[in-house]
Design brief:
By secondary structure, this protein is mainly alpha-helical. It contains 7 helices and no strands. It is elongated, with a radius of gyration of 19 Å.
Length: about 140
Amino acid sequence: MTVLLNLADVPKVDASELDMPMRMLIDKGQGLALLKGLSEREIRELEDDIWADFEGSDEARLAVALRFRALLDVFAARRLKGLILDHGFKLIAAAIKEASQQPLNTRFGFNAQKLLMALDAATAHPVADVAEPLPLQIAA
C-alpha cells in the first residue's frame, strides 16, 4: 500500500505511539540510544520492528518512524546530550512528548533550539512564589 505523506510537515502522533520505539530499544538493552546514538543498521532494524509491531495506520507508522529518526538526529547535539546528563531519564519522557507534537520537516529535522527550550521548561524546577511582597523603600 502506498502512503502519501507530506515530508515538509510530518503528521503529529500520540506520545504513546512515539514511545513505542523507545520501549523497543529498552527491551533490546539500548535504552541510552538518545545519548549514544544508533548506527544506520540499528536504526533500520528498529524501523523494521516498527513496521512489524505497530498496530496503527500506515501513515501513523511512517510518521512514528520518521519522528523517532529525527529525535535521534537532534539528540546528537551537544546541548541536548548535556540536558540528558543534567536531568536524567525523566527528560526522555519529556523529549518523546515534545517530539510527538513539534513540527517536523524531514529535510531539516526538528528545530533543535525549540526542542531544547521546551525540554528545559518541562524539566525545570518549580519556582516558589513569594508569600508577601517585600517592602522596598525608594531613596529620594
